[in-house]
Specification:
The protein has helices at about 10-30, 35-40, 95-110, 125-135, 165-180, 200-210, 225-235, 255-265, 310-325, 330-340, 355-360, 370-380, 390-395; strands spanning about 60-65, 65-70, 75, 80, 85-90, 95, 115, 140-145, 150, 160-165, 185-190, 215-220, 240-245, 265-270, 345. By secondary structure, it is an alpha/beta fold. It has a single domain, classed as NADP-dependent oxidoreductase domain (TIM Barrel). The longest helix is centred in the first third of the chain and has 20 residues, at about 10-30. The protein is globular.
Length: about 400
């Protein structure tokens, strides 16, 4: 909803006009608003509690449970490429390790404060890169990582058990994560997927002990069953739920977001750009690599050749609205997520520094109540064909933990 400022004097009105101009220009150019304000600022003292070296736009922070972060985070989900020294993501993009480190540091320089990764990404590679990149700037970020798969902590081999959230395994994992991340604490420790064989009370209790030991600050769950959320929260309050959420997949709106609102839990969106679909990176005739490394979209039903042309209706809608808002499709998609709730933070991943900067521009885009209603109605009218995930992956979402005996 648009709110008209009440001018108290001519100077205040002039400041408001300058701020509105700044936000509009930032949205048009696709940059974070503080980048422009840094260039346009005049001499004068910094506001109380604000670093003079990094000007901040009004509203450039949001609550994520007990945390406060920039509205757009950075997801670091990488694995070794087919060629030594090459790092790839799940969608056929690649760069080298030095470029990955530069990307993370550039993101922090541009205001990003939420960095997300996991032991399973690599395994271990992403945590190791993040740890190196954050040397000297660790205190500027909220560092989020995940546990929950059965991975040998020495070799990185994925073990037959699949998921493993036994208390003794969690403790070993966290010690190894702290070494890889080169830090003394994990700001948000997230169970990557619920282990159906371990009571969630045991998981939450273990994390509570790790918080007491100073190794972890906050607890979260990813793609959990609803009752597991309540049970975990009763033992150790959850800071975040991390689920897939975008215009391409709106599943959390039915039950998960209301539960987060009820319990005061922040919500982190993985795949907020629909695996590149909403950013304009997919065409009706796109086909995805299966060798030498499989593009995840090659095994995702909603990207299958027989349904992709019909699903492009959503990409067309996003592109049209992006033009209307003087934004890129990616920015429009991220801004839509930010407009849904004030405690939602997307974590788009990328291997491209220009795309990372572009994504941050979403924080400068707003919708009137009428615009948001129109856009939500238009998105809801498009029926996406094909399941969101392959069966072997989908079966791990919405799982309830074993009952506590």
């Amino acid at each position: 909803m648009s709110i008209r400022p009440t001018p108290m004097n001519a100077d205040l009105e002039g400041q408001n006009q300058q701020r509105r101009h700044l936000m509009l220009t930032a949205a048009t150019l696709g940059v974070a608003p503080w980048l422009l304000s840094a260039c346009a600022s005049t001499a004068g003292g910094a506001e109380a509690g604000r670093s003079p070296g990094r000007p901040q736009a009004a509203g450039a922070r949001r609550r994520l449970g007990p945390l406060e972060v920039f509205p757009v985070g950075l997801g670091c989900q990488w694995r070794p490429g087919a060629t030594p020294g090459v790092v790839v993501d799940s969608y056929s993009s690649r760069f080298d390790r030095p470029a990955a480190i530069r990307l993370i540091r550039q993101a922090v320089d541009q205001g990003v404060t939420l960095i997300d990764t996991a032991e399973a990404y690599g395994p271990f590679l992403s945590e190791d890169i993040v740890g190196e990149a954050l040397q000297g700037i660790r205190d500027k970020v909220v560092l989020e990582t995940k546990f929950g798969f059965d991975i040998d902590q020495v070799t990185g081999q994925r073990l037959p058990g699949g998921r493993n959230s036994r208390p003794e395994h969690i403790r070993r994992v966290v010690d190894a994560q702290l070494r890889r991340l080169r830090t003394d604490r994990i700001d948000v420790l997230i169970q990557h997927r619920v282990d159906p064989n371990v009571p969630i009370e045991d998981v939450a209790g273990t994390v509570k002990d790790l918080i007491g030991a100073g190794k972890v600050r906050h607890f979260g769950l990813s793609e959990p069953g609803l009752q597991s959320v309540r049970r975990a929260h009763a033992v150790q309050p959850l800071a975040v739920i991390q689920n897939e959420y975008s215009m391409l997949w709106r599943g959390p709106e039915a039950q998960v977001l209301p539960l987060c609102e009820e319990l005061g839990i922040g919500f982190v969106c993985w795949s907020p750009l629909g695996m590149g679909f909403l950013a304009g990176g997919v065409r009706a005739d796109s086909r995805f690599a299966t060798a030498p490394i499989t593009d995840f979209r090659a095994i995702s039903p909603r990207f299958a050749p027989e349904v992709l042309p019909a699903n492009m209706a959503l990409a067309d809608l996003v592109r049209n609205w992006a033009q209307r808002k003087n934004a890129t499709p990616g920015q429009l998609s991220l801004a839509w997520l930010l407009a849904q709730k004030p405690w939602i933070v997307p974590i788009p991943g990328t291997t491209n520094a220009a795309h990372m900067t572009e994504n941050l521009g979403a924080a400068s885009i707003s919708f009137t109540a009428q615009e948001l209603q129109q856009l939500n109605t238009a998105v809801a009218a498009i029926r996406i064909q094909g399941d969101r995930l392959p069966p072997a992956v989908a079966v791990m979402s919405g799982v309830e933990a074993a009952p506590k005996r």
